[in-house]
Amino acid sequence: HRHTNYKALSYTWGPPEPTRDIKIDRQTFTIRENLYHFLQVAKWKYHHEWFWIDQICIDQSNMKERNHQVGMMGTIYQSAKLVVAWLGQSDKSSSRVMQQLKYQYTMTARGLVMSHTHYSIPHPFGSDLTHQELSAFSQRPYWSRLWIIQELVLA
């Protein structure tokens, strides 16, 4: 991670097949489909920004390098200017859950800023989100990864 102004990606690799080939600086990388979907979104949202992504930054065929990089994960995520959590491709219900979470965050932050002694927080998920939407969101593969604890705590 020689660039000091980089973002780190927290995500799941997903199944080994299918894969996609991409080119970075004229070098071909074979990546899994979940990362490919992230890169499709990131090329517009994070145009010309550096990312540390394990599938690309670590030579996966070199066990010595892999072990060395795993030992550096804490430093890599802690040194990143931002850790981006990719939960997978968006769908209608995940978009609704994320909108509600952003709203709750904004309302809570405003409440804390407006009064240090009294604030009220609206119902955590509003009345329009269904149990199925929340359940589907909480069961995304991302939440089953043990590594996310370290990645997000160090962010």
In terms of DSSP E residues, the strand content is 15-25%
Number of domains as seen in the coordinates: 2
The helical percent reads 40-55%
Quaternary state reads: single chain
Instruction: Report the mean per-residue pLDDT as an integer.
Output: 84
Q: Which secondary-structure class do the elements indicate?
A: alpha/beta
Structural overview:
By secondary structure, the chain is α/β, with parallel strands linked by helices. It has two domains: 6-85, no CATH class; 92-139. The chain is 47% helix and 15% strand. The protein is built from six helices and five strands, in the order βββαβααβααα. A hairpin with a 2-residue loop joins strand 2 and strand 3. Helix 3 runs parallel beside helix 6 (147-154) and helix 4 crosses helix 5 (131-138). The mean pLDDT is 84.
Attribute tags:
155 residues; alpha/beta; 2 domains; three-stranded parallel sheet; two-stranded antiparallel sheet; 6 helices; 5 strands; HetReg/Transcr_Mod
Quick overview of this protein structure:
The chain has two domains: 6-85, no CATH class; 92-139. It is built from six helices and five strands, in the order E-E-E-H-E-H-H-E-H-H-H. It has helices at residues 33-45, 54-57, 63-79, 92-114, 131-138, 147-154; strands at 6-10, 19-24, 27-32, 50-52, 82-85.
